[in-house]
Write a structure and sequence with these properties.
Layout lengths: L2 H4 L1 H18 L1 H9 L1 E2 L2 E2 H15 L14 H30 L9 H12 L6 H8 L4 H27 L8 H60 L1 H6 L1 H28 L4 H12 L3 H12 L4 H26 L1 H7 L9
Antiparallel strand pairs: 1-2
Helix pairs in contact: 2-9, 4-7, 4-9, 5-6, 5-8, 5-11, 5-12, 6-13, 6-14, 7-8, 8-12, 11-12, 11-14, 12-14, 13-14
C-alpha cells in the first residue's frame, strides 16, 4: 500500500473540511456545478465516478463470470440484506430517532418528511461506489459486478412497491429517467468501455501491460474519489453551516443502519462459509445506497426544499467516511473471519 492509500482517511477528513469551507465561501460556483445535470444526475460527479469505477472494471474477466455461481451464498446474503432487512430496519430507526427521540429538536412539520427521506435512501441499493469499496478491500470483482447488476434489475421492479408499502402511499412516482440513466451510465457504458480497454491492453502487451496500466490508474481513481467528496460537501456546505444540528440528528439513524447491515451481512457470510473475498464486498454492498435515485425520488414526491430531500443528502455526506471505516474493519478482521468460517461448498462448474 502506497503513501497515498495509507493515509486515505486523513485525505478524506481534509476534503470534508475543504468542501464545507469552499461551499460556504463560493456558493455561486458550486451552484453552477450542481446545475450541470441531466435527469438529476450531475455530469461533473458522473465523470469523477467514471474515473473511480472504470479502473475497477478493468480487472473483471468476463470469461470468469460463470464462476460466480460458486458464491451463491454471498449473493443470497446481499439480496436478503438489501431487500428484506435494510428498508424495514431504516423505517424502524427513522420512527425511533427522528420520529420520537429527536422529534422535540426537529421542525415539527418536517419530522414525517425526514422519515420518508430515510426510507427512500434505504430502499435503493448502491450502484457505482460499490466498485470502489470492493476494490479497496480486494473484493472478488466478478461477484461485485454480478451482484450490482442483479440489484439494478430488482430495483426496476421492486423500488416503487417497496417504498409505497413503507410510506403508505398508494402511488409512487419513480424517477425512471434518473434510474435508467444511472444504470446505463454507471454500469452498461462503463463496463463496455472497460472491456474494450482491457482487450486492447492485453492484445498489445499481455497481462503485464494491463497490470502496469492499473497501477498507473490507481492514484487517479483515489484522486477522483477525493474530488467527488469535495464537491458533495461543497454542494451542501451552506446547509451544513446553517443547520448543523439537524444534519447531525439525521445522520444518527444512517450511521446505525450502515454498521448494522454491514455487520449482519459479514456475520451471516461467516456463518454460511462464504469466502472472505466475497464476504467483504457483500458487507459493503449491503450497507451502501443509491443516492441519485433516492434524492430524485424525494424531490419528485415531496419537493426540493423538503426534509425528505435533505435526508438522502445527509446520506451522501455520511457515506464516504463511514464506508471507508467499514473497509478498514473488514480488512482488519480478516484473520478472525477466516479462522471461524466453515469450509464453503464449491459447486461444479
Amino acid at each position: 500500500m502506497g503513501f497515498f492509500e495509507r493515509y486515505l482517511s486523513l485525505w478524506v477528513a481534509l476534503c470534508i473540511v475543504a468542501g464545507i469551507a469552499l461551499g460556504s465561501w463560493f456558493p455561486t460556483l458550486f451552484a453552477g456545478i450542481a446545475a450541470a445535470e441531466v435527469a438529476r444526475v450531475n455530469l461533473v460527479v458522473a465523470v469523477l465516478i467514471w474515473l473511480m469505477i472504470v479502473p475497477m472494471l478493468l480487472k473483471i474477466d468476463f470469461g470468469a463470470l460463470g464462476a460466480v455461481k460458486q458464491h451463491w451464498k454471498g449473493v443470497g446474503v446481499t439480496l436478503f440484506i438489501n431487500w428484506a432487512v435494510k428498508p424495514f430496519s431504516m423505517a424502524a430507526l427513522g420512527t425511533l430517532f427522528p420520529g420520537w427521540l429527536f422529534a422535540p429538536l426537529l421542525p415539527a412539520g418536517e419530522v414525517s418528511s425526514y422519515i420518508a427521506g430515510l426510507i427512500l435512501l434505504a430502499a435503493a441499493p448502491c450502484t457505482a461506489m460499490v466498485f470502489v469499496w470492493s476494490n479497496l478491500c480486494d473484493g472478488e470483482p466478478n461477484y461485485t459486478l454480478s451482484q450490482v447488476a442483479l440489484n439494478d434489475v430488482i430495483m426496476v421492479f421492486a423500488f416503487a412497491p417497496l417504498v409505497g408499502l413503507l410510506l403508505g402511499v398508494a402511488s409512487i412516482t419513480v424517477p425512471w429517467d434518473t434510474l435508467l440513466l444511472s444504470v446505463v451510465l454507471y454500469i452498461v457504458l462503463s463496463v463496455i468501455a472497460a472491456q474494450i480497454a482491457r482487450r486492447a491492453l492485453r492484445a498489445r502487451g499481455g497481462q503485464g501491460r494491463l497490470d502496469a496500466f492499473l497501477r498507473m490508474l490507481q492514484p487517479l481513481s483515489l484522486a477522483a474519489l477525493l474530488a467527488t467528496l469535495v464537491l458533495l460537501f461543497g454542494f451542501q456546505g451552506g446547509a451544513i453551516v446553517r443547520q448543523p444540528l439537524i444534519i447531525a440528528l439525521i445522520a444518527v439513524p444512517i450511521l446505525i443502519q450502515v454498521y448494522l447491515n454491514a455487520g449482519l451481512a459479514y456475520w451471516l457470510s461467516r456463518r454460511l462459509g462464504v469466502a472472505w473475498c466475497v464476504a467483504a464486498p457483500a458487507a459493503l454492498i449491503g450497507a451502501s445506497n443509491f443516492f441519485e435515485l433516492a434524492v430524485a425520488a424525494a424531490i419528485s414526491l415531496f419537493g426540493l426544499q423538503s426534509g425528505a430531500a435533505l435526508a438522502p443528502v445527509v446520506g451522501v455526506l455520511v457515506e464516504v467516511p463511514v464506508m471507508l471505516s467499514v473497509v478498514a474493519i473488514v480488512k482488519r478482521t480478516r484473520p478472525w473471519y477466516e479462522r471461524g468460517a466453515p469450509v464453503a461448498l464449491q459447486l461444479p462448474l
